């Protein structure tokens, strides 16, 4: 190191590269949003990119779940779209972004419950009229609607129906179902067991 010369400005010291690239945002760590078997893709930790990737990978499967809960495809699509809008707005406040898909499922279940509560009130006080003509969209799922199992599911209490739909149609684990429904794993087992017993009973009566 050379001695300082009086009156001569010092050259700034050359900094060695650290090997770390500068980050354009606060958090840009690449992550996997869900199981690759579920169609997940790695995305940067950015709300637009992450939610777009989730939408592409899981929108259809979430709509299928919602259809079984709210019983019509148009409402199911609206429920799922609202869930995606909500998670986009709350993205930076998520405690664990790696569990975004689990949060989406929980949102879909909760919004489906709200739809059913609202529908029950409307049907209770609405004047009786002629039934609506079937839409083209509802016709597209006509085969599903005519299924004896689907009809039997509709007759079950809400929590039992949710547990069975998430378990056997969503193929979720007990822990995932518990998170989606906001209950304990023990309660999931109870609702599933009671739901299966009730489902068998309903199917026997329909046969």
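Sequence proposed for the structure above (207 residues):
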């Amino acid at each position: 190191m050379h001695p300082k010369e009086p009156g001569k400005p010092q050259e700034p010291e050359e900094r060695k590269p650290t090997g770390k690239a500068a980050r354009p945002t606060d958090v840009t760590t690449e992550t996997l949003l869900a199981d690759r078997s579920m169609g997940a893709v790695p995305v940067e930790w950015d709300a637009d990119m992450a939610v777009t990737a989730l939408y592409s990978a899981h929108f259809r499967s979430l709509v299928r779940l919602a259809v079984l809960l709210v019983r019509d495809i148009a409402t199911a699509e609206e429920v799922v779209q609202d869930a995606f809008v909500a998670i986009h707005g709350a993205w930076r406040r998520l405690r664990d972004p790696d569990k975004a898909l689990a949060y989406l499922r929980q949102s879909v279940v909760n919004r489906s419950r709200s739809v059913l509560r609202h529908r029950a009130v409307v049907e209770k006080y609405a004047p009786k009229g002629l039934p609506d003509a079937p839409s083209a969209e509802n016709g597209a799922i006509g085969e599903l609607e005519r299924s004896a199992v689907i009809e039997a599911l509709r007759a079950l209490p809400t929590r039992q129906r949710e547990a069975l739909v998430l378990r056997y149609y969503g193929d979720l684990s007990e822990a995932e179902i518990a998170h989606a429904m906001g209950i304990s794993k023990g309660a999931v087992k109870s609702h599933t067991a009671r739901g299966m017993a009730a489902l068998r009973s309903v199917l026997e009566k329909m046969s």
